[in-house]
Amino acid sequence: MEDGNTREPLVAGSAGGGRGGATGNQNNRNRAFVRCLSNAQDELKSFRSCLQWMCLAQSSAWATCMAWSIFVFFGLLVPIASHILMANSSCDSLHDLSFHSVVHMSLSSFATLSFVSLSRFVRKYGLRRFLFLDKLCDDSVAVKKVYTEQLNRSQKFLSFFVLPCLAAKSAYKIWWYASCSPRIPFLGIVYLGNTVACTMEIISWLYRTTIIFFVCVLFHLVCSLQILRLQDFVQVFQVDSDVASILSEHLRIRRHLRIISHRYRVFILGSLILVTGSQLASLLVTTKNGANVTVYKASELSLCSITLVTALLILLRTATRITHRAQSIACLASKWNVSAALDFSTAWKDSDSPDPQDAATRGDPFPLSIIEEPPYVGNSGNEGVLDNNQLTPVYARSIISFQKRLALVTYFENNIAGITVYGFALDRGSLCTIFGTELSLVLWLLGKTINII
């Protein structure tokens, strides 16, 4: 990520010199990929604070080592130690931790995927470039204003998902340690050991859930920017716009959607696989023979499932929303083409030329005389040209515009933009396919675990 007032190239320059032309081209290419200057009071201040608070800032080698060390400690070691120590605790059946391993494996796996993806985003692209802030100069003032407001509200959006999970986890763990009172090895005082263990588990849960939802919030932000651009783009159909400018703007938006899809495809696919595996494992341990499921034992498992499914729903809803908006462009372009044709028809009907529909009503289905009738020649030759209100000259002047509009509509229909995962568009049809697949897996697993009498 970017430091205070430093300028860091996005790509490394060539180590050695070369020919003058090649060196000049390389310098121009490097100059085109220079990060924007950042300062402590810019629009990314809250994001930098959040990254520093989570110890995810990787602006230097020391910061990178610190970030990975903290992740390994809170994301992997603390859950493993908690599972090993709590499994040997002498508590009653009410405090049994039968589902503890499934909870920690599911949450830690998703947190690992999120941390690796976030580290790659920050290290490779930088926060400003990843959020497309370097491309806002090409957008309208309205898009810049609304996107800046969304950046400022993103922390509230993140807290909306993290804080309820933290409150529920804290309440459960405080109740568990207060009522069970397990003895933690290597700590002689029981209350001190329970307090330290409870605090470490809560911090570990908070750390993992924050990383998961933070990556989802970043995806929601970059997709929201493309939705704002699409909303601003549809205004071109309400004014007299050139076909070339419309095509150029759509290609820009489509390129950014491909970039987002390329960056997030591994994370989206991995999230879908991990959440599916987690829910199937949860269903397996709760429906197997001899499983004693109670509210107290399954509370942590339910909270973990809600957290993971909510994160996945954020990704799928955001991707489906922007894909639906992008697909609606073809419908708007078709209506724009029809409206332009109707405007021409209305203008032609208001002229002095006879209406072909009236001619067809009179029994002449092919009123060729309307087109082939020579212009009236009066006392002056210019009067004949001025009085020429036949359809043929007007249609000849409009056929080029009609062909361009038709070509643009055909392009929109055959080049539908949106979020894709390795070529598969995440639209409403994909959601139905995912839901059907998940339901089939659930029913298959229930058929293997539940004996219907």
TrEMBL record:
InterPro entries listed in its UniProt record: DUF3537
Region listing for Disordered, in residue ranges: 1-26
Keyword list, A-Z: Membrane, Transmembrane, Transmembrane helix
Residues passing through the membrane, by range: 61-82, 102-122, 205-228, 264-286, 298-316
Domain of life according to the entry: Eukaryota
Compositional bias segments (type: Gly residues): 14-23
Name of one Pfam family that matches: DUF3537
PANTHER family with a match to the protein in the record: OS06G0635200 PROTEIN (PTHR31963:SF16), RAS GUANINE NUCLEOTIDE EXCHANGE FACTOR K (PTHR31963)
Protein name, UniProt field: Extracellular ligand-gated ion channel
Species whose genome carries this gene: Trapa incisa
Species classification: Eukaryota, Viridiplantae, Streptophyta, Embryophyta, Tracheophyta
